[in-house]
Design goal:
The structure holds 2 protein chains of 2 kinds.
Chain A lengths: L1 H17 L22 E2 L4 H20 L6 H24 L8 E12 L7 E10 L1 H24 L6 H22 L3 H19 L6 H32 L4 H10 L12 H18 L8 H4 L5 H10 L4 H8 L1 H4 L6 H21 L5 H21 L3 H28 L9 E2 L8 H15 L5 H15 L8 H27 L4 E2 L5 H6 L8 H7 L4 H5 L1 H4 L1 H4 L4 H4 L1 H21 L16
Parallel strand pairs in A: 1-2
Antiparallel strand pairs in A: 2-3, 4-5
Helix pairs in contact in A: 2-3, 2-5, 3-4, 3-5, 4-5, 4-11, 4-16, 5-6, 6-7, 6-11, 7-9, 9-12, 11-16, 14-15, 14-19, 15-16, 15-18, 15-19, 16-17, 16-18, 17-19, 18-19
Chain B lengths: L1 H23 L7 H7 L32 H24 L30 H6 L4 H46 L7 H22 L2
The chains are: A mainly alpha, B mainly alpha.
Chain lengths: 604, 211
């Protein structure tokens, strides 16, 4: 009842504000233009399984945890499920998005939310669990399921020092993430999209804080969650506004109304400042939070505290591109404004983010954080692409970036695993020439040339499409489009420099290394590629001892990047002692002799 | 792990190859196969105000292009050159001696490279960039600390003023009870006195009210 009356309040407010007291007219008769949603194809029901299979994997991983499974079963189960999901996506893609007809598809699951406060159809709020699949969705689903399968395969070995409860927890959160991400991109309405949006935020929090005994990881998880909430506030307000203006949260109806140029009450949209500028700005706020743009980006470098496969999947390839997806999905809404004000803001902010992050990357030494800032920088390129009226370029760059950045992260993860968590590029050299690391070296080279934009690589084509569009878009449409393009071109040069700075320092050159201080990884004592660290110490005289004295005089700047390792050794101890103290406090309490006081003295 | 890295790497090559194949053929769409997917979707730029797409139609507009040339053609060469220059600078500054550093570098140990000698050129900027422009510290000073102080103030308000009012209402009966407690001393004389006094007050009240 309370929710109903709240909705009524919202509706009456919105009809006052936007509809001049007319209430909500049915939107069907207003479909004048040929909007994106006017012709819809019915998708087969099995399309629902693409998203629901990972959810099933999440539940079953929970059961594995309850059964205390202590082997690789959760990993193999997750991989099989995600691979099936990817197979279904490929089927969907090949059947429906390769021919001549590429109109959006729709599949209805079940009615999710239905509030009715009057007799007419307009006096209801409906949100279905239904999917709206067009080329944009299909592109995203392809790389989300494809990369998730590969990264789950990688994680099955990367995380196997934690087989048991932690392993189940990791794969449960991993599957839940994939489900949320798929709901985010496939949803047919804004509210269901928001469910996925919050779901990926939650899983990001759970997985950054996976090493919950490490204070740096816990702090990073909290930071990511809080900063995302600030962006999500904007997104939530944007969804309220969209409902107020269009009287619906369904994409196809919104697109029809935007194409007609009138809102649900029949008033022109373009002159409505709230619809043309404020609402897209609020959507942009949500997108900036999730995609780590200025000035929301600070959580992403810290998120590198999570396990590397998580960084590869969530914080490089998929979740952080949700903002790009949101703007691309709602592109019609962004073009309501004839002056394209919000897209101009998006273009400028994207270019400045790209440049800003690139300056940091050129100076820091932590190779995983270089990749983290590089992701922020590349996301800046994507946002600039959206702002420069090249959504194709932005989507294409998202797609190629997902693959090469995942490759780079997986390579960094292999190095980190092999050298006891060492991430300082001044402590590693010639890694590619060490036994077992040849493939990692080649993979890093491939990833690096893509990121740098060497001709004929995927990264080259996608970045080029955005840059060229920047010089093509007239300044009369996007203010200062050419300046934005120049900033991006400069940043492209800086990108090539910092990428190959890491490559030339770490992967080639004289063979030399100092192991990190991640005790857990050192205990395993094995390179991911099959050579044990102890063997290495025997084969190569220069290991720990030679470089031990070198590590102290360069600590002033080098370790500013990763405070996590410094705090690692005593963090476990600290957590233990807190738990001990709690236990002690409970043991001290004796119910037979002392009276239980529910209010401690301090609150009196 | 090996297989996953390999597959990821091959996919990143395949994405480029696929694009190249779909754009290089005659009559291919702009944006290759990705363009073919995005154009019919909601992300295609087409607005009622402009009537047509600006994307890949730049030559129709004034003030477009790169030094008067078609940006979409020229940018292939420009961005390729920019990328290669970036790589060359990295090779000079960080590359090891010999072919691995493309014969441009001179690094012999992991820790030091030629780039270190350039640090003084940038003055304080290297240090500032290395510390991430102190954004975390600025946020800490501008947002986190003030919020922390504010929440402490609210905590004190809650503890002393809000809780104080609640506790006051609890304390008033206690004070009254404390004040009246000595009268319940168990002395019969005292109770008789009280009874007599109360009776007297009642009588006076009845007398006054019924007059």
């Amino acid at each position: 009842m309370q929710q109903l009356s709240m909705l009524e309040t919202i509706t009456s407010f919105t009809s006052l504000a936007f509809a001049a007291g007319e209430g909500h007219a049915a939107s069907a008769h207003l479909s004048g233009g040929g909007g994106a949603g006017s012709i819809m194809r019915e998708a087969p029901t099995w399309v629902l399984a693409i998203a629901l299979l990972p959810f099933a994997a999440f539940l079953i991983n929970g059961i594995f945890a309850a059964l205390k499974v202590r082997n690789l079963l959760p990993a193999w189960f997750t991989i099989a499920t995600l691979a099936t999901s990817f197979g279904l996506t490929l089927l969907l893609f090949l059947n429906n998005f390769t021919g001549d007809v590429r109109t959006p598809m729709h599949v209805h699951g079940f009615e999710w939310i239905h509030f009715q406060w009057g007799a007419t159809e307009a006096q209801a709020f409906v949100s279905n669990f239904a999917f709206y699949i067009d080329g944009l969705t299909c592109l995203w689903v392809l790389f989300v399921t494809g990369l998730a399968t590969l990264i789950a395969l990688y994680s099955s070995e990367y995380m196997n020092h934690d087989v048991g409860l932690g392993y189940c927890r990791f794969f449960a959160a991993f599957s839940l993430f994939v489900f949320s991400m798929l709901v985010l991109v496939m949803a047919d309405n804004l509210l269901l999209m928001f469910l996925g949006w919050e779901g990926v935020g939650l899983c990001s929090y759970l997985l950054i804080g996976y090493f919950y005994k490490k204070p740096a990881a816990v702090a990073a998880a909290k930071k990511a969650f809080i900063i995302n909430r600030i962006g999500d506030l904007g997104l939530l307000m944007a969804i309220f506004s969209a409902y107020g203006i269009f009287g619906t949260v369904e994409y196809s109806e919104i697109f029809t109304l935007v194409a007609s140029g009138y809102d649900a009450a029949g008033n022109p949209l373009a002159v409505n400042t709230w619809a043309a500028i404020v609402m897209p700005l609020l959507f942009t706020c949500g997108a900036f939070g999730k995609s780590a743009q200025l000035f929301f980006y600070v959580w992403l470098p810290d998120a590198m505290e999570g396990p590397t496969p998580v960084s590869a999947l969530i914080h490089a390839a998929t979740m952080v591109t949700a903002g790009v997806f949101l703007i691309a999905r709602l592109y019609p809404v962004y073009t309501i404004d004839p002056a394209l004000t919000v897209l101009t803001i998006v273009a400028w902010s994207g270019a400045l983010t790209a440049f800003w992050a690139a300056t940091i990357e050129m100076a820091i030494f932590d190779i995983k954080r270089v990749m983290g800032y590089s992701t922020i920088s590349q996301l800046g390129f994507m946002f600039a692409g959206l702002g420069l009226l090249s959504p194709t370029g932005a989507a294409f760059h998202t797609f190629t970036h997902a693959f090469f950045k995942a490759t780079l992260f997986l390579g960094v993860g292999a190095v980190m695993h092999g050298f006891g968590g060492q991430l300082d590029l001044r402590r590693l050299s010639g890694v590619a020439w060490m036994r077992g690391f040849g493939l990692v070296g080649i993979a890093m080279l491939v990833g690096s040339i893509n990121l740098s934009g060497v001709p004929l690589t995927a990264g080259f084509f996608s970045k080029d499409m955005i840059l060229a569009q920047g010089f093509t878009t007239p300044s009369s449409m996007i203010g200062g489009a050419n300046i934005v393009a120049w900033i991006l071109l400069l940043t492209a040069g800086m990108t090539a420099y910092y990428t190959f700075r890491t490559f030339f320092r770490v992967y080639v050159g004289p063979k030399e290394f100092t192991t990190g201080d991640d005790a857990e990884l050192l205990e395993i004592g094995r390179h991911p590629m099959g050579t044990s660290l102890a063997e290495w110490h025997k084969q190569h005289g220069h290991g720990h001892a030679e470089h031990a004295e070198r590590s102290d005089h360069s600590d002033h700047s080098g370790h500013s990047g990763h405070s996590g390792h410094a705090g690692h050794a005593d963090s476990g101890h600290g957590a233990g002692s807190v738990a001990e103290r709690r236990l002690q406090a409970r043991v001290d309490f004796d119910p037979t002799t002392e009276e239980f006081d529910p209010h401690p003295p301090a609150s009196r | 792990m090996k297989a996953a890295i390999l597959a990821c790497m091959l996919l990143s090559i395949a994405a480029g190859g696929l694009y190249f194949l779909t754009t290089s053929g005659a009559g291919s769409e702009h944006g290759g196969w990705v363009g073919g997917m995005i154009h019919p979707s909601s992300a295609h730029f087409e607005s009622p105000h402009f009537g047509h797409s600006v994307e890949h139609a730049g030559t129709k507009h004034e003030a477009a292009g790169f030094f008067g040339q078609d940006a979409h053609k020229l940018m292939y060469y420009v961005s390729a050159a920019v990328g290669l220059i970036g790589i060359l600078i990295a090779a000079i500054l960080h590359g090891p001696k010999g072919w691995q550093g493309l014969f441009l570098g001179n690094r012999v140990i992991a820790e030091k490279s030629r780039a270190d000698s350039l640090i003084p050129l940038f003055g304080p900027f290297t240090k500032i960039a290395r510390n991430k422009w102190y954004v975390d510290e600025i946020y800490d000073a501008l947002i986190v600390k003030p919020l922390y102080v504010l929440s402490h103030i609210f905590h004190l308000i809650d503890q002393y003023i809000v809780d104080g009012i609640v506790n006051l209402f609890g304390a008033i009966p206690r004070w009254i009870g404390k004040a009246l407690r000595p009268t319940q001393s168990g002395e019969i004389h005292g109770y008789a006195m009280g009874m007599a006094g109360g009776l007297a007050v009642l009588l006076v009240l009845v007398f006054v009210l019924t007059r």
